Amino acid sequence: MNKPTTRDRDAYWFVAPSLLVLLLVLFIPIVATVALSFFSYPLLRPDLGIQFIGLDNYKQLLSDSQFIQSMIRSFVFAGGSVASELVLGTVMALLLKGKVWGKPFFKVAFMLPMMMVPVVVGVAWRLFLLPDFTPLAQIFDWLHIPFDTSRLLTEPSWAMVSVIIADIWQWTPFVMILILASLHGIPDEIYEAARVDGASEWRQFWTMTLPLIKPSLVTVGILRGMDAIRTFDLVYIMTNGGPAFATELVSIFNYKIAFSRYAMGYASAVSTGVLLILAVVVFAILRYTGRKGMKL
To answer: Among 138, 155, 181, 282, which is 20 to 30 Å from 288 by CA?
Structure first.
């Protein structure tokens, strides 16, 4: 066994600050949350103190229909937004990869929504969709489409569509940037050879471009999916989880458990449960893509 050299020891010292920060801001809170999930910690009853209750919080979690419904809504929100972002982001990246007039301007303009704070995005979209402010009513009237715009935030199905559209508007540029970087990594020679063989643009995309960017699409999809599952501020500002719990994602459900009921032990169990579910889903996706031969 080779002993570490001076160069190796110097490398460890350079990495140590990052590992320390990662330990403080990530691992310690996760361990504390998992540990607290085995206790009863009612903040409104400090006289009861913190009591060890074992797996009782998890037993309650498995039988809690509100938690199950909130997880389903979270997956619906994540699936609708991420799938749309992957398609739109890829289309935008393909357009910017080609010869487009004003390409630098469009790159900056497309990235502006991503730079905005989610709370600001939520406020802006809520104002935009309110019947007294939205120009959509005039647009629908001009197009002779009979639609009541007040339904966008007050009707359960349309409220979910509204928050999904707001998320798509903000995070499609993130997908665009990463896919565009992946497209720039494809050598031009293979396209030149395909054109010499008479392959159309459409055939080049399906047989060459798409297979080559699939690993990037899977990676971006996983990153955006995990981020979408834990979305809180955008949806909370726009709908506060309503109407009739239609947009109460698991993050909003957990917020209410922790800061309305003040059941910190149960809230920790909810957080741990979501973490385990996401870990299983991501592991399954990585295992599936590994079998398909896609190197991420």
So the answer is: 181
Rounded distance, CA 61 to CA 143, Å?
Answer: 48
Residue partners of 288: CB distance under 8 A and separation at least 6: none
Q: Return the ∠ at Cα 184 (arms to 181 and 187), rounded to 5°.
A: 145
Q: Where are the alpha helices (DSSP H) in 23-155?
A: 28-36, 56-62, 65-97, 103-115, 118-129, 136-142, 151-154
Looking at domain 52-291, its CATH class is mainly alpha
Domain boundaries, the chain: 52-291
Instruction: Give me the residues paired with residue 263 across strands.
Output: 42
Could you please report the per-residue DSSP string of 166-214?
A: HHHHHHHHHHHHHHHHHHHTS-HHHHHHHHHTT--HHHHIIIIIHHHHH
- Does a cis peptide bond (omega within 30 degrees of 0) precede residue 104? no
Q: What is the pTM of this model?
A: 0.90
Q: What is the pLDDT of residues 80-139, one digit of tens each?
A: 999 999 999 999 999 888 777 777 888 888 889 999 999 999 999 998 898 777 788 788
Q: Give the closest residue to 96 by CA, choosing from 165, 167, 179.
A: 179
Phi, then psi, of 39 in degrees rounded to 5: -125, 160
Beta bridge partners of 288: none
Q: Rounded to an integer, what distance in angstroms lies between the CA atom of residue 211 and that of residue 259? A: 46
Phi and psi for 37 in degrees, rounded to 5?
-65, -15
Q: Are 111 and 103 in contact (CB under 8 A)?
A: no
Cα four-point dihedral sign 124, 125, 127, 132: positive
